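Sat 14:20. Reprocessing the chain from the morning session after the first attempt stalled halfway. Input below, unchanged.
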Amino acid sequence: MATEQLPSAEITELSAILGSDASALLDPVVARAWIAFLTAYGRVTRALSSELMDSSGMSLADFDVMAQLARAGEYSLRMSELADAALISKSGLTRRVDRLAVNGWVTRRRCTEDGRVHWATLTPLGIKAFRAAAPGHLRAVAQRFGASLSASEMERITKDLMKIAAANAERSREAI
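Finished this time. Tokens:
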């Protein structure tokens, strides 16, 4: 497999667009890492989402929401908790859950004690669909993501990504 050219040209192009040195705003090493991350993320998630849709009729985002509910006690979470867990905006989550409800995979109901709270629950049909989709999806993750790096490289990238995630955890919550 040929190694792709490092995207250092991106800084040069951005500098031309801005009319100033973009490397003064973003270190070229950071720019290369960021572009590499976005490229890998985009390619892997597009492939996984396409494969998942073809095999199960659910998108990667659907699978994520269903996985969060599958992990929860009684297959239910408050919509706000689900938004945090699934890393999706509350409005985006409402639309996603409504689409999952059309398939009969999830229900959304208002809390009887506090009308401001809504719960999302994975239905028996949703549990069945999730369980059917999960093995193939996990094999695809192992192949498309896991097979690209050695175990020690995977440990290193996990540590590095968790460090970045932790540094941005509060900012992520504020955006949701």
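The longest strand covers residues 106-110.
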